[in-house]
Specification:
This protein is of the alpha/beta class. The protein is 29% helix and 21% strand. Helix 2 runs parallel beside helix 4 and helix 6 packs parallel to helix 11.
């Protein structure tokens, strides 16, 4: 497999992110000083070989920034990223020494494929590095690999001579997946892989991704707003809010017994959720100004805090990720109080049954 390292250096985790911080400078004009935006704040994550980590959260939560850092598109302000224990260093828009081990499948399959190139050339591009192949033997080897990849994603080898516009949206996404698999990567970043597809086609692509993972032992990092997609693909889930991880753990546990009120709010977005828990009166941001740096960033929106009588602890101390007797962790001072409101939460009723049905389709060890 491309990017393999000395077995003595191997670690249980394929990808390890430690205390990752990403800051952006924003310009306010020539006469006004620039300001700093912290997109990702001290995030630590890990993914084991052959497993899938799902990153979920609202727009602007920082999940896409993490994916860009992993792909080498953005340099971190602080922290480290390691593949099999080896440090990755972002250099000129990519990770030096890791161009093959990490691949990406983008959200829009049409815009991610060059309309001027034939499908065979698109799939072969990671193998040729964009350079012409002179050797006849090498050309034959690449053609065999392209035909193999097209077969893996359910396309006929004869269609390698077609252009992207001659395929449907689902077929174009299959081509993008084939291209990502070409250099035999260790990790594939899936950035909203089904959001641009019809509902019926989404199911086919999700089934394909699971099949390929089972056969090839490839590891996925999934970025998605669709919680049902994440519930189906991911073996572990991390929930992001304003640049921080507020909850993470095994998919089945996180979806059926969430330990952070923000996770409940996300689950309320699933069609069929009653949202009764979130319909309770919630405090709004006060006119006195923003929360202090030491406060929980979710305090002014937290339905649980409102139900508990707005305890001062939430605005005095920023909660840290705390294990819940296992791999499940949540950054909430009162996560043990959530059970009292579970029957009112957005995960009850149709939404709970839907997520339980999806997570039940995963293997027992997921």
């Amino acid at each position: 497999m491309a990017g393999s390292v000395d077995p003595e250096l191997a670690t249980p985790e394929l990808l390890t992110i430690d205390d990752l911080t990403v800051r952006y400078r924003t310009s306010r004009g020539m006469r006004r000083p620039s300001s700093e935006v912290v997109a990702v704040d001290r995030v630590s994550l890990s993914i084991e070989q052959g497993r899938t980590l799902g990153l979920v959260g609202a727009t602007g939560s920082g999940k896409s920034t993490i994916a860009q850092v992993v792909m080498g598109m953005v340099a971190p302000s602080a922290g480290s990223i390691r593949m099999r224990g080896l440090e990755l260093t972002a250099s000129r828009g990519r990770h030096s020494g890791a161009t093959d081990v990490i691949q990406v499948v983008m959200q829009d399959p049409f815009s991610s494929l060059d309309p001027r190139m034939r499908v065979g050339s698109i799939v072969a591009e990671p193998l040729t590095k964009g350079r012409p192949v002179v050797s006849r033997a090498k050309r034959a080897e690449i053609n065999r690999r392209v035909n193999e990849l097209l077969g893996l994603v359910g396309l006929r080898a004869s269609r390698a001579r077609n252009y992207p516009h001659e395929f449907s949206g689902g077929q174009r996404q299959r081509i993008a997946i084939a291209r990502a698999l070409a250099p035999r990567p260790d990790l594939i970043v899936l950035d909203e892989p089904t959001s641009a597809l019809d509902v019926s086609v989404r199911a086919q692509i999700l089934t394909l991704l699971k099949k390929l993972q089972d056969e090839l032992r490839v590891t996925y990092l999934v970025i998605s707003h669709d919680l049902v997609t994440v519930a189906y693909l991911a073996s572990d889930v991390a929930v992001m809010h304003l640049g921080r991880i507020v909850e993470k753990g095994p998919t089945r546990q996180l979806f059926t017994r969430p330990r952070h009120p923000y996770t409940l709010e996300l689950l309320a977005s699933i069609p069929g959720a009653s949202g009764s828990f979130l319909a309770q009166p919630r405090p709004v941001r006060s006119a006195a100004g923003p929360l202090p740096a030491t406060a929980c960033r979710y305090a002014h929106r937290c339905a649980l805090r409102a139900r508990l009588g707005s305890p001062d602890l939430c605005t005095e101390a920023d909660p840290q990720l705390t294990p819940d007797g296992g791999q499940h962790q949540a950054a909430c001072h009162f996560s043990d109080k959530l059970d009292a409101f579970t029957h009112e939460a957005a995960v009850s009723g149709d939404a709970r049954r839907r997520t339980e049905t999806v997570t039940a389709s995963r293997p027992p060890d997921a």
